[in-house]
Amino acid sequence: MSSILVVGATRGLGASITKQYAEKGWSVYGTARTQNHPDGFPDSVKWLPEVDLMKSDVGETIVSSLKDSKPLDLVVITAGIFKTESFEDGPDWDDEVRMYTTSSIAPVFIIHRLSHAGVLQKGSKVVLVSSEAGSVALRTDAEGNYAHHASKAALNMAGRLLAFDLKDKGVVVSIVHPGFMRTEMTRGVGFDQYWDQFHAVTPDEAAKSLVDWADQLDISKTGQFWAPRGPKDIGTAESVLGKDLPTPLELPW
């Protein structure tokens, strides 16, 4: 039986990925920040409680919870946090630390520990859920939200470097923009006003695209940054990259 670990499995995209892989008959491990996991998930999901990406021992916590498992076929890290910032109002130190730590620091510690514990082996795949917001090339005007953009750019770099480290071990690392989604996170920062204009999709739709992407993923795409759903929801894609862009779309750093 194939196996997957979803880091950030309790809501949004992570919840949809967890449910879809469980429905496919995979052995699914999902992380939760608290001791209790939410309702509405298949009984087959194995929960790893009290996994906090703000703690320096997060990698060891996950490995300890997986001590009786076989090597994983797939790891998806989709945990994230988004707090808005503007130049006028100024950045918030604590919010920035949380965004950088969750998005780009914790994933390095998690993948490092999984690899050294033998949980990642030849043929394993890692999908790091980033955002087109982390592409420097696609930024063409003032947007604010410094830590949101920069923490995703840092994740892209971390993913690229992890791919180099893991390539000889036969482990694939894919960095992806999953699409603009209709989630409580985007609603919470006021981005629901853009849902229709930029073709936002549900977490289930985005998860289906990521499941299909992971299924066909191989070492030829390791260390690359892709939008499996293409350019439709990326406002600056055509102005920066040109017209008639393909789906899936490889994104610039």
From TrEMBL:
It comes from the Eukaryota. SUPFAM superfamilies: NAD(P)-binding Rossmann-fold domains (SSF51735). InterPro entries: NAD(P)-bd_dom_sf, SDR_enzymes, SDR_fam. GO terms for molecular function: oxidoreductase activity, acting on the CH-OH group of donors, NAD or NADP as acceptor. Gene3D superfamilies: NAD(P)-binding Rossmann-like Domain. Pfam families: adh_short (PF00106). This is Oxidoreductase.
